[in-house]
C-alpha cells in the first residue's frame, strides 16, 4: 500500500512538473546560446535558427498526425527532412566549444497547434509555421549571411538560405492552393 501511494505521489508530481520542465528546457537552450563565445549577431542567429528548425520539425510531426490533407502532409514531410539536415549543418558549422541548442521548439506555437484537427489545423500550420515562420527564418538567415562575424556560421547561412527561401515559396504556394490568407 505504501509503495502504491508513493508511486501515485511520484506520478502526480511528475505531471505537475511537466510544463515547468518544458519552459526550463527552452530557457536552458537560450542561456546555452547566450553563453557561447560568439559575437551577438552570431549568437542570435544560432538561437533563432536552432529554434526555427526545431519548431518546424516538431510541427511537421504534428501535421503528419493531425492533418487529413495529402498536400499538407507532403509539405510537412518535406519540412521535417530538410530541417533535420539544416540542423545538422548548423551544428557542424558551429565553432568548437559552441553549443547549438536542440529541442528548443517554440512551445507556444506548438501548443496552439496541438488541439486543432483537419482544416483548422491545416490553416494555422500553413499560415503560422509555413508562411510566417519561413518569412522570419529567411530574414534571420539573410542577416547572418550579410552581417555574421563568424565565417563558418556566415557560410552555413549563405548555403542554407536558398533552401529556406524555397520553403517559403512552397508555403506560399500551398497557402494559395488551400485558400489560406
TrEMBL record:
Pfam families: DUF4142 (PF13628). Residues 1-18 form the signal peptide. Keywords: Signal. The keyword Kinase does not apply. Residues 42-174 form the DUF4142 domain. It comes from the Bacteria. InterPro entries: DUF4142, Ferritin-like. PANTHER family: BLR2558 PROTEIN. This is Membrane protein. It comes from Caballeronia temeraria.
Amino acid at each position: 500500500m505504501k509503495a502504491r501511494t508513493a508511486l501515485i505521489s511520484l506520478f502526480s508530481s511528475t505531471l505537475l512538473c511537466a510544463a515547468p520542465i518544458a519552459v526550463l528546457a527552452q530557457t536552458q537552450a537560450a542561456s546555452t546560446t547566450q553563453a557561447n563565445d560568439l559575437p551577438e549577431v552570431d549568437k542570435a542567429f544560432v538561437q533563432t535558427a536552432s529554434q526555427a528548425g526545431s519548431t518546424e520539425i516538431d510541427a511537421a510531426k504534428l501535421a503528419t498526425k493531425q492533418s487529413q490533407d495529402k498536400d499538407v502532409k507532403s509539405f510537412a514531410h518535406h519540412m521535417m527532412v530538410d530541417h533535420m539536415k539544416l540542423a545538422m549543418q548548423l551544428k557542424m558549422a558551429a565553432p568548437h566549444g559552441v553549443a547549438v541548442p536542440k529541442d528548443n521548439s517554440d512551445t507556444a506555437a506548438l501548443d496552439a497547434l496541438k488541439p486543432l484537427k483537419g482544416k483548422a489545423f491545416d490553416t494555422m500550420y500553413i499560415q503560422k509555421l509555413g508562411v510566417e515562420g519561413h518569412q522570419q527564418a529567411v530574414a534571420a538567415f539573410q542577416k547572418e549571411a550579410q552581417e555574421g562575424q563568424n565565417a563558418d556560421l556566415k557560410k552555413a547561412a549563405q548555403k542554407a538560405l536558398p533552401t529556406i527561401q524555397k520553403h517559403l515559396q512552397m508555403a506560399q504556394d500551398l497557402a494559395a492552393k488551400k485558400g489560406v490568407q
